[in-house]
Amino acid sequence: MNEAILAGLLSSGTDAQSVTATVRRTERAEELRTRYPGLTVLAENEDSEANSKAVQGAGLVVLGVKPAGIADLCRRISDDLARETVVVSVAAAITVKTMEAALPEGQPLVRSMPNTPLKVGRGAVGIAAGTHAGPEQLKLGEALFSGAGTVVVVPEDQLDAVSAVSGSGPAYVFYLAEAMAKAGAELGLEPELALTLAQETVAGAGAMLAQEGADPTALRKAVSSPNGTTERAIAAFDEAGLPAVIAAGMRAAADRAAELSRELG
Question: Where is the Pyrroline-5-carboxylate reductase catalytic N-terminal domain (predicted)?
């Protein structure tokens, strides 16, 4: 995820020489330096103060560690942040309140909920302003992600819903492709052929949905000829309660995000 954000930022015109990244291992640092010439990469196994050094003088700091480590990271870098530095978190479930308690008083903070299609330039990202982040700070947060996807600004209390729709959403689509491939094999196709057909169908349908003005309902109806095979399949899905199953899964995802916020806060 972090490299996808980095790649999008650089592809949008940001000079690699203006960016410093930190990683845990020397091997990963060397890999990134090779892939992105001019990028400064500090490895924590070589320098335990890598994160603190990276944030010194930075206008924008992106926190990309796992949720359980975010508050500790905020505390460790707090003395090295400039007052005007905008801090952006990409960790799920960690609230603005939790992070602000670990950062210097008044530090501008933006909380985000990105998803993995950032890796292919088709990400969907929700961002929410912290207590001390105004329009200019939010613009910096938007610019961070806009090179690799669509960015929407929402109130923080809607980020769990964003997580349920787009944060976890790619996994729902992959799950659908898995199920389609398995069903195709059960219908007599060679498993590899069934998987290829499922992959290309899901990818192609996604490309159609990405077109300007696309409406999923209209697209579905355009494929569903009256009394045809597709209409019969959709009717079977409805009879099995698939819309309710999807809604239940998304509710479970949103509830788990709220639960993690309580556990980690």
Answer: 1-92
Whether 123 and 235 map to the same domain: the answer is no
Q: What one-character DSSP code corresponds to residue 22?
A: E
**DSSP-derived secondary structure letter, 116:** G
Residues 8, 95 share a domain: yes
Element at 237 (helix H, strand E): helix 229-239
Q: Which long-range contacts (CB under 8 A, 24 or more apart) does 13-19 make?
A: 13/147, 14/147
Residue 213 region, left (φ>0) first, then alpha (ψ -120 to 50), else beta? left
| Residue pLDDT, tens place only, 20-65 | 999 999 999 999 999 999 999 999 999 999 999 999 999 999 999 9
153 shares a domain with 25: yes
> Last residue of a domain, which of 125, 159, 193?
159
pLDDT in tens, 122-153: 999 999 999 999 999 999 999 999 989 999 99
Question: Is residue 265 a part of any domain in this protein?
Answer: no
Number of domains in the chain: 2
Residues 28, 144 within the same domain: yes
Cα–Cα dist 161/254, whole Å = 6
What is the pTM assigned to this prediction?
A: 0.91
Domain-located, residue 49: yes
| pLDDT per residue as tens digits for the range 210-237 | 999 999 999 999 999 999 999 999 999 9
